[in-house]
Amino acid sequence: MTTPNHLDPSELGDKTFWDETYTSDLTHNASIPTHIGQTWFSDSNASTLTLKYLLSLSPPLNPASTSFLDLGTGNGEFLFLLRSDGGFTGRMLGVDYSPASVELASRLARQKGLSAEGEAGVRFKEWNIVSGNWDDSGEGEFDVVLDKGTFDAVSLNAETDGEGRRVCEGYRAKVLPMVKVGGMFLVTSCNWTEEELRGWFKWNGQEGGGEGEDGVGRLEWEGRVEYPRFKFGGVEGQSVSGVCFKRVS
């Protein structure tokens, strides 16, 4: 399985775009508290379908002890849903590279009675998936790491790393240290198909191989979130892909 071709860069991959977006949302929320900002994939019901998938796992996730990390948390809505509708009461952390996102999500948590200070609190923290080193965060590993559109945004980022690669090429190595061995990484995308997501999160060129080329661990395909499918020109597809990987080493 080969790594997919890159996407053309877009403003949606630019941190400045998201800083401006969440700053605007903060301003609107200050005057209209019911304004919660943009929720990614809301038109596809992605959060509800992802929660349904998580609740269907066998063996089931332990609602009291399962820890969740939300990458590119935005307004934090999916973590709030895990608390309110999923019944999960364990550790929850949302990170985002936009300080305005972190401020918005923290404000909404307080409005919902889920501030970090409370027993059922959801915590939010500024952290940059593009340039940050997770080992320096002091946050350790999580049972479930969630990505709802963040890899999409990173894939649209024109920046390159120290090796001259587009930053999305190093994304897998960034994510693996966040996931416990035996834990899951669940990625939702509107830019990549399921097959392409497998290509991005491959190791040694194929699933079932040894340690990853980046030396940080190995993932196996665990399952998919089912979205409505459509047919066009005799080809069947879907507008959103949700893929769950399990870290096995």
Summarize this, please?
The chain is an alpha/beta fold.
What do these coordinates show?
There is one protein chain. With 249 residues, this protein is an alpha/beta fold. It has helices at 15-31, 46-56, 77-84, 99-111, 150-155, 171-175, 194-200; strands at residues 68-71, 92-96, 123-126, 142-148, 179-189, 219-225, 230-232, 235-237, 241-247. The chain has seven helices and nine strands, in the order H-H-E-H-E-H-E-E-H-H-E-H-E-E-E-E. The longest helix has 17 residues, at 15-31. The protein is globular.
Quickly list its features.
two-stranded antiparallel sheet; globular; 249 residues; 7-stranded mixed beta sheet; alpha/beta; 7 helices
List the helices and strands and how they pair.
Layout: H1 15-31, H2 46-56, E1 68-71, H3 77-84, E2 92-96, H4 99-111, E3 123-126, E4 142-148, H5 150-155, H6 171-175, E5 179-189, H7 194-200, E6 219-225, E7 230-232, E8 235-237, E9 241-247
Parallel strand pairs: 1-2, 1-4, 2-3, 4-5
Antiparallel strand pairs: 5-9, 6-9, 7-8
Helix pairs in contact: 1-4
Order of H and E elements = HHEHEHEEHHEHEEEE
Average pLDDT over all residues: 89
User: What portion of residues is helical?
Assistant: 25-40%
State the oligomer: single chain
The fraction of residues in strands falls at 15-25%
Counting DSSP E segments of at least 2 residues, the number of strands comes to 9
Q: Can you tell me the residue ranges where pLDDT is under 50 for at least 5 consecutive residues?
A: 204-211
Biggest sheet, strands in spatial order? 3-2-1-4-5-9-6
- Structural class by helix and strand composition: alpha/beta
Count helical runs: 7
Largest sheet: 7 strands, mixed
- What gyration radius follows from the Cα positions, in whole Å? 18 Å
Which descriptor suits the 3D outline? Answer: globular
- Give the N-terminus to C-terminus distance in angstroms: 20 Å
